[in-house]
Design a protein that fits this description.
The protein is of the alpha/beta class and 506 residues long. It has three domains: 188 residues, no CATH class; 160 residues, TIM Barrel (Alpha-Beta Barrel), CATH 3.20.20; 100 residues, Golgi alpha-mannosidase II (Immunoglobulin-like, Sandwich). It is 31% helix and 23% strand. Strands 1-2-5-10-11-12-13-14 form an eight-stranded parallel β-barrel, surrounded by five helices. Strands 15-17-18-23-20-21 form a six-stranded antiparallel beta sheet. A three-stranded antiparallel beta sheet has the order 16-19-22, with no helix packed on it. A hairpin with a 2-residue loop joins β7 and β8. α12 packs antiparallel against α13.
Length: 506
Amino acid sequence: MRASAYPSLYQINTRVYLEELGNELHRMATLDDVPDSLLDHLAEMGFEWVWFLGVWQTGVASRAVSRSNPEWLAQYAQVLPDLLEDDICGSPYAIREYRVHEDFGGDEALAALRGRLAERGLDLMLDFVPNHVALDHAWVDRHPEFFLHADAGLLAHEPQNYRPVVTAQGDAILAHGRDPFFPGWPDTFQLNYRHRGLRQAMIAELAGVADRCDGLRCDMAMLLLPEVFRRTWGDLSAPVDGSAPVDDPFWPEAVTAIRRRRLDFVFMAEVYWGLEYELQQQGFDYTYDKRHYDRLKARDAAGVRGHLRADLSFQRRSARFLENHDESRAADAFPHGLHQAAAILTFLVPGLRLFHEGQFEGRVVHVPMHLGRRPVEPVDEVLGRFYARLVACLRERSELRNGDWRLLECTPAWHDNSTSEQFVAFAWTGDAGRRTLVVVNYGPERGQCFVAHAFGELGSQRYTIRDLMGDASYERSREELSDGALYIDLPAWGFNVFDVSRTVEG
């Protein structure tokens, strides 16, 4: 059994990290070179998971697309004005084979790294990309029936979504992987989940990957849902070999197969479009919580409160983030002040806490996945000190990882003062009544409110309230409290993370 009900995960872009490590070593770095000091530091910070993003073998054909697509090249040049062709390594989500990339040291280097992580109590998360594969995946030649096929007319009408290929079974036109709202990804081919043989092959791949880690982040997991798949592909999804199409959900079958082998294996889904709960019901331990992120980014305090009223069984399986490799850097999307308030409301609520390498340092440049190098950026010391205290709270306050959580109501401090609508407040209670009270003024102006039930059940004459993210400390008597409500006055985007303790009276 893992240590925390609400664990923390640290995401590392493997390609970029090893490129920078290699610069320090003056040679190509592999996973064997990941220093013990980094792993020690992550364990000391209280992380329980490390996600090494993009470790699998990619291919020449998909990389060639990455190096020739005009739209992508323009994006790269904005990130790296001194761009070199060697910087374009191809997307790690165009996977040719589920073995560790030869540049990273292969499967043996990953196994050794996993062992070093385990020695420190750290679990390893890797990627699984179920929707598509690289252009030069072996199945394109050996099992073209595993893919979605088109005819010459469709290729002429939508050349961006299809590509002619030559296979061992003859010429074919295959679909590029995509979701229903965007053109195809031209460095990939789309797998057909209505084909029974493909499903069996993917479960076998999944089992092989699961043997090499402790959990998987499943890319665009909602694309495999039968209703989404049929909406995206329509009649094209009928198997080309004439076999009977399969329309049962894939994930329950796949998750059950892995759990027969590894009962404690963890699945995390990248999922959007309000389909999080459905994937939780299909077996995922955690699902991306993009709705929470979007409401924070929109500066919508009421929307954040509404989202946090969801059933706790849903929230505890939500993966909360302020950035990841697909989103803008938090330091770019959220101005100073707002950034810190959004982080409090992201990482101190129930769920898995997902942090992205570079977030603590205040990096602002979002690096495309096709690149293996990123620009040098200055370190934001102020943001670094904030995150150090926040992570220390998560590490040192056991109730934040295993306690009982409750959303609290904020009422007006006086008549006609509507600023209470800007506030979000909640409390965590742990063993022996240990209590952490979090209050955030998630609004653009100074605000005041009363936080109801801030002290739980009043059982003392006096309380000490100490701000864990600052230096303030207060004493409050029972007479100063109105039915356990606490008066709060905070500036725009201000916050308090209080340790609430009963004062021992002599």
